[in-house]
Amino acid sequence: MENLIKEMLSLEGKVAVITGGSAGIGAATAQLFANMGADVVILDINGNQGEKIASQIREDGFKARFLSCDVTCEADCINIANTLKSEYSQINILFNNAGVIVRKSVTHLAEPEWDAVIDVSLKGVYLLSKHLIPQIKKGGGAIVNTGSGWSLKGGDNAAAYCAAKAGVLNLTRAMAIDYGKYNIRVNCVCPGDTDTALLRSEARQLGEDETEFLKDASNRPLGRMGTPDDIAKSVLFLVSPMSDWVSGTSLLVDGGGMA
Q1: Contact 22, 53 (CB under 8 A)
Q2: Domain for residue 256, yes or no?
Q3: 7, 9, 95, 174, 177 from 4: Cα distances, Å
Q4: Is residue 135 classed exposed, middle or buried when 0-12, 13-18 and 19+ CB atoms within 10 A define those classes?
Q5: For the domain that residue 111 is a member of, what is the CATH number?
Q6: Whose C-alpha in 18, 39, 42, 116 is 20 to 30 A from the C-alpha of 83?
Q7: Does residue 253 lie within any of the structural domains?
Q8: Is 79:56 a contact under the CB 8 Å cutoff?
Q9: DSSP letters along 87-137, please?
Q10: Per-residue pLDDT at 70
């Protein structure tokens, strides 16, 4: 049974592309995917940190590389697609994870702040998917988009983020419909509060004490915040053979917070 479980979670021989892979959930997922046998391609605008994560994975004896990419720029996404096409016979997995958050209501949001959140968190999913799906179509595969608990409900002082993440969820459904005939499964992982630099930045944006903010974030049935590894394991499930008949859905990973 143990060998069967390992086989069902194995990513051996797969090429996995991860955006926002230099830190937090993206970095944890890159490390887990590599440990499960994938050849990992980390995309991010943070070159120093992205290369550091890729180097750590290689030092552990696994396969990883870093490529600089601004997912809001179509030219960057085209360049990435061309580079990968020249070096890999197929892309098997795409984890659209890059995102930013601005904690403001509609009346306090400046237009550039709105644009930044929508462009990274929603437009980035569209652009990179647009240019990598032709390579995934060659043999089928799995795409996971990072949503949020706020894909499913509203939140205070996070108008652009709520709009972007709700959009990611419904874009996921639309992509699952369009590309299922090519044996491409598309799903959305929806994390609750997860202990990342992004979450800690929210405390600063709101002018709240970080310790108290994180304490409030832990107030859920399982009694703690999520960790990047918690989310990475859920993403592994969604891209692995364990979920071969799962597509067009969202997986809420929030320690029971929504309940």
Answers
A1: yes
A2: no
A3: 5, 9, 25, 33, 30
A4: buried
A5: 3.40.50.720
A6: 116
A7: no
A8: no
A9: H-S---EEEE---------TTT--HHHHHHHHIIIIIHHHHHHHHHHHHHT
A10: 98
Sheet holding 141-146, edge to edge: 64-68, 39-44, 15-19, 93-96, 141-146, 184-191, 250-253
Task: Report how far residue 32's alpha carbon sits from residue 38's, in angstroms, rounded to the nearest whole number.
Answer: 9
Contact 217, 114 (CB under 8 A): no
**Per-residue confidence (pLDDT) for residue 172, from 0 to 100:** 98
Quick one: tokens of 39?
Answer: 């050849």
Q: 11, 13, 76: which is closest to 43 by C-alpha? A: 76
User: What's the mean per-residue pLDDT of the chain?
Assistant: 96
In a domain, 200, yes or no: no
Report, as ranges of residue numbers, the positions in the chain whose pLDDT lies below 70: 1-2
153 burial type by CB count under 10 A (0-12 exposed, 13-18 middle, 19+ buried): exposed
Q: What percent of the chain has pLDDT over 70?
A: 99
Q: Does the annotation count 161 as an active-site position?
A: yes
Q: List Cβ neighbours of 106 (8 Å cut-off, separation of 6 or more).
A: 159
pLDDT at 2 (0 to 100) = 67
Reported as type and span, the H/E element at residue 166 is helix 159-179
Look at residue 3 in the predicted model and tell me its pLDDT: 76
What total number of domains does the chain contain? 1
Asked if residue 220 is part of any domain, the answer here is: no
| Confidence at residue 76, expressed as pLDDT on a 0 to 100 scale | 98
Domain containing 79 equals 2-193+231-248
Instruction: Return the pLDDT at 8.
Output: 86
